[in-house]
Design brief:
Chain lengths: 211, 585
């Protein structure tokens, strides 16, 4: 019993309730206060510093803006001219009697568009669908046959401007099934897709009859 | 004298005493005849002389009285008195005539004629006196007193004198005769006395002679034998009896006595030989009734047997004495060792006593400690009860904690949902930024500024996503922590339940312990009491050990004495053996 009493007085293994109460109080006040003015200032300063950086000097030569996205751990890019918009993969409806690369159809602002999985097309390893999957709405340039559909992207990385010169055409990694859809690979390792060819490809037109 | 000596002692006694008896008989006869004649003389004296003299006196007195009565009659005038006196006179006259008649008989006075004639005369005179007296009475009655007196003075007085004279004469004669007779008796008595003296002297002389003779003949030899017997009774057998050859009882006694002396001397000789350790003596009893001889033979036989047995016994005794000596020596050694051991034991017991004292103190201390422990255990019991109560409180609080933690977890879930929504928003913002960039690019040169804004929006959305990811990871941590807390609380609750159980068990244990301690306290008290008694007992043991020590010291002394005694006994046995070897069997 005396040991128990001494344990309360000197806490070798006991609980320092005063410390706990102090810490709880500190947490409560921190939550109530929110981020301090100093922290806000720091954030704002950091952001301003980032913005104040000189943008990279525009490289000589012809450049093109591309949408960069991840597809089976590889970074791919599609020229803006073929991109209408990006859309979250929501309410995918599977359509029967379609080739395996056609995942289904979705509703984009009242327009029903089919969703194509380029991984199947390009013989890339499967990853599975998730909430973070996005679809990129492709559209042909005006005046063409006007084909519109969505391709699946594992993750949309952002917008990038890539030089069209210096694209490497012949790469051992590019040899494969969808070689005709690749424009080239940039020095950063971004694979530039030829969206026009994809849109023009005959296989994209599905006309399957099922009896 | 030889013939007298040969006579039987009875005969001798008869002869001696018979002579004396003859003399005594003659004396008795003589005395008898003498006394008879004296008696006769006395009788005659009384009857023939004394009584007649008295009667004569009586006649005289009666006559006197008659004369006086007549005078009295003449004097008195009373007729009745006259008649009474007359009557008296008549009776006196009859008495007188009766006496005269008695003595008128011849045989009365030994035929003395003188006396008889006087008596006859006296009768006639009295008769005359009687007649005249009657006449006087008649005259008196007739009133002629004077005539009567004349007669009295005259004739009657003469007659009266005559009567008196006659009676006096007879009386004197008889008196004279009585005197004669007394003198004759005295002479006879004197003769008889002389004869008695003579006879007594003769008997005395004869008796002395007989006693002397008998003494010489009987008493002397007997005295000699008695002397010999006296000597023999004193153990002196060297007696020589001069035996006289006599045929009476004394001779037989002397002979038998001599034979007895010889016999006894023979026996004494044999006894002497036996006394001289010679047991080869042959005692031949004279007859089956020879008690001494038979006893002597038995004694010799028994002595031989006994001697042999004693010899055997002495041999055994000697060897036993040797063994006893050896044993006693060992015992002496042992007793010395025992004394040493007893001393050591006494010391040990003293130490044990001190130990007992210490144990008594310890038992008291234990008793005290047990009492305190009992109090402590009661406190412990109360503490355990309180602990159980507190444990129940802790369990309640643990449940409350678990509840709170679950609530916290649920609130983190809500936060997670919020964070999901935020993440969704960020994602959408990102998409919006991308789309804005696309739109800006399509706008060409005019959309350049918008491109920057789109870039900024995209950056914000990225930061939001990062923040939500951080929040989610923190929420995961919180979830893990709350799960751990719930687990810990559950564990704690279980531990508390276990603790309650343990406390209950502890309470039981403490109760049991309290009971045990109470028993221990009681036991300690009993131990204290027992130790006290043990202490007393040890003191008694110490005193006993002291007594034993004294006893063992005495034992040592005693055993030494016993050893000496055993040595003496051994020597005695050897001596006895030597002694027994001296006997010739």
């Amino acid at each position: 019993m005396s040991g128990g009493r001494s344990g309360e007085e000197t806490p070798p293994e006991g609980i320092d309730w005063a410390e706990i109460h102090r810490r709880m109080e500190a947490v409560r006040t921190a939550i109530n206060r929110g981020p301090g003015t100093g922290e806000k200032k720091d954030i704002l300063k950091m952001r301003a510093r980032a913005l104040a950086k000189e943008p990279d000097a525009p490289q000589p030569g012809q450049r093109s803006d591309v949408l960069e996205f991840l597809l089976a751990h590889e970074r791919y890019g599609i020229e803006f001219s073929y991109v209408r918009e990006v859309w979250p993969l929501k309410d995918l409806t599977a359509v029967p009697c379609t080739p395996p690369f056609v995942l289904g159809v979705i509703n984009v602002r009242g327009q029903i568009l089919s969703v194509v999985d380029l991984k199947k097309f390009l013989d890339l390893p499967e990853k599975g669908l998730g909430d973070l999957n996005k679809v990129i709405v492709l559209e042909s340039a005006p005046g063409s046959n006007g084909m519109e559909f969505c391709v699946l992207a594992d993750l949309v990385l952002g917008v990038r401007s890539v030089p069209l010169e210096g694209l490497q055409r012949s790469m051992p990694t590019l040899a494969g099934a969808g070689e005709e859809f690749f424009k080239g690979v940039t020095r950063e390792g971004l694979i530039l897709l030829d969206a026009g060819r994809v849109l023009r490809d005959r296989r994209m037109v599905v006309n399957d009859e099922v009896f | 004298m030889k013939w007298f000596a040969n006579l039987a002692t009875r005969t001798k006694l008869f002869l001696g005493f018979g002579l004396v008896l003859v003399i005594l008989a003659s004396v008795i006869i003589t005395a008898y005849s003498g006394f008879t004649s004296i008696q006769r003389s006395q009788d005659a004296l009384y009857r023939k002389d004394f009584i007649p003299a008295l009667d004569m006196g009586k006649i005289l007195s009666d006559q006197n009285r008659t004369r006086a009565d007549i005078e009295e009659v003449m004097l008195t005038k009373d007729n009745a008195k006259q008649q009474a006196i007359e009557q008296d006179i008549k009776s006196r006259a009859e008495e007188i005539s009766r006496l005269i008649n008695i003595y008128s008989v011849n045989s009365q006075f030994e035929n003395d004629p003188n006396v008889l004639s006087k008596m006859d005369e006296l009768r006639s005179v009295t008769d005359d006196y009687k007649k005249t007296r009657d006449e006087q009475f008649a005259l008196i009655r007739a009133g002629n007193v004077e005539g009567a007196r004349k007669l009295s003075v005259g004739i009657q007085e003469q007659r009266y004198d005559r009567i008196r004279g006659l009676a006096s004469q007879v009386m004197n004669i008889e008196t004279k005769r009585a005197q004669d007779r007394v003198a004759a008796s005295g002479a006879m008595a004197g003769k008889m006395v002389f004869f008695f003296i003579l006879a007594g002297l003769a008997a005395f002389a004869l008796s002395i002679a007989a006693a002397f003779v008998l003494n010489r003949m009987i008493s002397n030899p007997l005295r000699e034998i008695a002397g010999a017997a006296e000597k023999m009774s004193g153990g002196d057998l060297s007696v020589n009896l001069s035996v006289e050859d006599r045929k009476d009882e004394v001779g037989a006694l002397s002979k038998s006595f001599g034979k007895m002396i010889t016999y006894l001397q023979d026996m004494a000789g044999k006894a002497g030989r036996i006394a001289g350790n010679d047991l080869t003596v042959s005692a031949n009893p004279l007859s089956p009734k020879d008690i001494l001889g038979n006893s002597f033979a038995d004694m010799v036989r028994n002595l031989r047997r006994m001697n042999r047995e004693v010899m055997d016994s002495v041999t055994v005794l000697a060897s036993s004495a040797g063994e006893i000596l050896a044993s006693t020596t060992e015992v002496a050694a042992s007793v010395t060792e025992t004394a040493t051991s007893v001393n050591e034991t006494t010391t040990t017991v003293e130490e044990v006593k001190q130990t007992a004292q210490v144990s008594t103190q310890k038992a008291k201390q234990v008793s005290e400690a047990a009492r305190k422990a009992l109090q402590v255990s009661q406190m412990g019991e109360r503490a355990v009860d309180e602990t159980i109560e507190k444990m129940a409180g802790i369990r309640l609080q643990m449940e409350s904690i678990a509840q709170r933690i679950v609530e916290l977890s649920e609130q983190s879930q809500a936060i997670g949902e919020i964070i999901g929504a935020v993440n969704d928003l960020a994602e959408q913002s990102n998409l919006l930024a991308v789309n804005a960039s696309i739109e800006a690019a399509k706008a060409g040169e005019h959309g350049k500024g918008f491109t920057v804004v789109a870039q900024e929006v995209k950056s914000l959305s990225e930061q939001s996503k990062q923040a939500t990811a951080q929040v989610r990871s923190i929420l995961n941590d919180i979830q893990k922590a709350t799960s751990a807390a719930v687990l810990a609380t559950e564990q704690g609750a279980k531990t508390v339940a276990e603790g309650v159980k343990q406390s209950a068990q502890s309470g039981e244990a403490i109760k049991t312990l309290a009971g045990s301690i109470a028993e221990a306290a009681q036991a300690a008290t009993q131990i204290a009491a027992s130790s006290q008694q043990q202490l007393i007992g040890m003191e008694q043991v110490i005193s006993a050990m002291n007594s034993i020590r004294l006893a063992s010291e005495q034992n040592v002394t005693g055993t030494k004495q016993t050893e000496t005694a055993a040595q003496a006994l051994n020597e005695l046995g050897q001596k006895l053996k030597l002694l027994m070897a001296q006997y010739k069997i």
